[in-house]
Amino acid sequence: MRVFVAILLTLALGACAAEAPIEQPAMYADMATPGAQLDAVAAATMISQYRQNNGLGTVAIDPDLMKLAEAQARTMASQNKLDHDAKAPLAKRLNVSGYPATAAVENVSAGYHTLAEAFSGWRDSPPHRANMLKGGVTKLGIAASYAPNTKYKVFWTLILASTDA
């Protein structure tokens, strides 16, 4: 009888565990899948925490910078080319859009399938790290564009800026 109760209890606990799916953190979501959506809040949080760990202020998502980052990532993906100037130089893109940046920097990359990978790549590259740790920037736009028939599959753009005088 004890064995029977132990088996039932084990089965009941196993059923409970099967009902609670383990949710994957947004930073590990695979952007190399059709319809994948980058979690901009997770990106802003990750970059803000990194900046805070280095004595700097946080950054907030800016809808206009999000659009600019998306356009740049899509352009690189459509051209199958990793290039800051794929659409146009950053300063020109900001001017054409009417974005009133007083400071702006951009990181682009390709081939990273997750936000965590892209962030690590930028953090480990001195020029990209310097951009993420630029003093005075307060706003962020970030995008990942999936292009399955390209060498890199995923193209990333991060724009950090300030509109303060």
Strands, total number: 4
Which range best describes the helical content: under 10%, 10-25%, 25-40%, 40-55%, 55-70% or over 70%? 40-55%
Major sheet: size, sense and barrel closure? 4 strands, mixed
Structural class: alpha+beta
> What's the Cα radius of gyration?
21 Å
Task: Give the DSSP E fraction (strand runs of 2 or more residues).
Answer: 15-25%
Tell me the number of helical segments per DSSP (H or I, 4 or more residues long): 6
Amino- and carboxy-terminal Cα gap? 78 Å
For the biggest β-sheet, the strand order reads 1-3-4-2
| Principal-axis shape | globular
Task: State mean pLDDT (0 to 100 scale).
Answer: 90
Order of helices and strands: HHEHHEHHEE
List low-pLDDT spans. none
How would you concisely characterize the structure shown here?
With about 160 residues, this protein is of the alpha+beta class.
